[in-house]
Amino acid sequence: MVPTDRTSTASQGASVHGDEQSPSRPGRLSILRSLWFRSRREARDDAEAGRSINMPTQTVLPPLQQVLRRLAMALLVLIFTTLIVYVDRDGYNDNVDGAVDFLDAAYYATVTLSTTGYGDITPAGDAARLTNILVITPLRVLFLIILVGTTLEVLTERTRQQVRIHRWRHRTRDHVVVIGYGTKGRHAVQTLRAQGVARDRIVIVDAQAENAEAAGDDGLVAVLGDATRSETLLKAEVQRAAQVIVAPQRDEAATLITLTARQLNRRATIVAAVREDENVPLLRQSGADTVVTSSSSAGRLLGMSLVSPPVARTLDDLMTIGSGLDLIERPVLAQEVGRPPRESEELVLAVVRDKDVLDFTDPRLEELRAGDRVVTVARATPGAGDDE
């Protein structure tokens, strides 16, 4: 890919970033407050977010294991109740024989927890009655909760989902928004992950449900909706994002998305992909800092593959993180300051100095300076391109 930089917009975004104040971070009590009280607007926003925001898929137990776990918990409650009754058996009265043994205690615990209550065994002593009030009754409620756990699980799962979305919306900032989770978007995310960007700092926006579900399966937050609409990008918190990658299928969609994203966020770095070179100026005017033309780049690689297949394979190797050789941008090391780039242990291709990119043939690169960043070719680290 051959990126086209828009220096004026980048500098403008940097100046705006210095002027704008980031939104204040909400207090930790906001999540608890949302569980207790929500205004009508907050309820409407959360309901809409719940329909369009897909949180990462979490691992759950299979249904049979969930049933067995509930049965085990119910059995533990029953055994615990039986032991409590048996320890205080002198405070209970059996209408049949007057004595309460262990079997009678288990029988009483069973009919009491199930709220059947035949009345043949009753607490007669004050201690037994107090134990029933303070211990047996809460255990009865817990027992019933376990038995109706399926229904409660649906309710609690819905609450957990709302809490996750609410927490995510209030904590997400300085993240990366990737618009389009097709081939370009997925490879962009793979590169970000290989470069050390955490999953929780990446948000996907896609109009197709299957792509949003695929992003959730990959451990990413996904927003389902049309990215050309402001409300969709606001759900992805694009107004607080640090970088935006625009990778839809059509160039006209990329232009509208870039324009909308720039209006919502004046400081973010926006990188957009288009198919045709003629649309590059339009993307720049819309607010993209960098424009990548996929068709022309693919054409150059096709031509190079025909003329010199080894060179094409080397280029593909350099563009694939964690495979053979990697292109890396890093700060200059202390031992490299004052020395020419060719004396570095890694092959230096370019140096970023004062926002200018100087290739290794530039006469100004007599020596490396403190504050420089170097673009080098290094041996790929094993597992660098693998997800955790």
Automatic annotation (TrEMBL):
<feature type="compositionally biased region" description="Polar residues">
    <location>
        <begin position="1"/>
        <end position="14"/>
    </location>
</feature>
<dbReference type="InterPro" id="IPR003148">
    <property type="entry name" value="RCK_N"/>
</dbReference>
<feature type="transmembrane region" description="Helical">
    <location>
        <begin position="67"/>
        <end position="87"/>
    </location>
</feature>
<dbReference type="InterPro" id="IPR050721">
    <property type="entry name" value="Trk_Ktr_HKT_K-transport"/>
</dbReference>
<dbReference type="InterPro" id="IPR013099">
    <property type="entry name" value="K_chnl_dom"/>
</dbReference>
<keyword id="KW-0406">Ion transport</keyword>
<dbReference type="Pfam" id="PF07885">
    <property type="entry name" value="Ion_trans_2"/>
</dbReference>
<dbReference type="Pfam" id="PF02254">
    <property type="entry name" value="TrkA_N"/>
</dbReference>
<keyword id="KW-0812">Transmembrane</keyword>
<keyword id="KW-0407">Ion channel</keyword>
<keyword id="KW-1133">Transmembrane helix</keyword>
<dbReference type="GO" id="GO:0034220">
    <property type="term" value="P:monoatomic ion transmembrane transport"/>
</dbReference>
<feature type="transmembrane region" description="Helical">
    <location>
        <begin position="133"/>
        <end position="155"/>
    </location>
</feature>
<keyword id="KW-0472">Membrane</keyword>
<feature type="region of interest" description="Disordered">
    <location>
        <begin position="1"/>
        <end position="27"/>
    </location>
</feature>
<protein>
    <submittedName>
        <fullName>Potassium channel family protein</fullName>
    </submittedName>
</protein>
<keyword id="KW-0813">Transport</keyword>
<feature type="domain" description="RCK N-terminal">
    <location>
        <begin position="173"/>
        <end position="293"/>
    </location>
</feature>
<dbReference type="InterPro" id="IPR036291">
    <property type="entry name" value="NAD(P)-bd_dom_sf"/>
</dbReference>
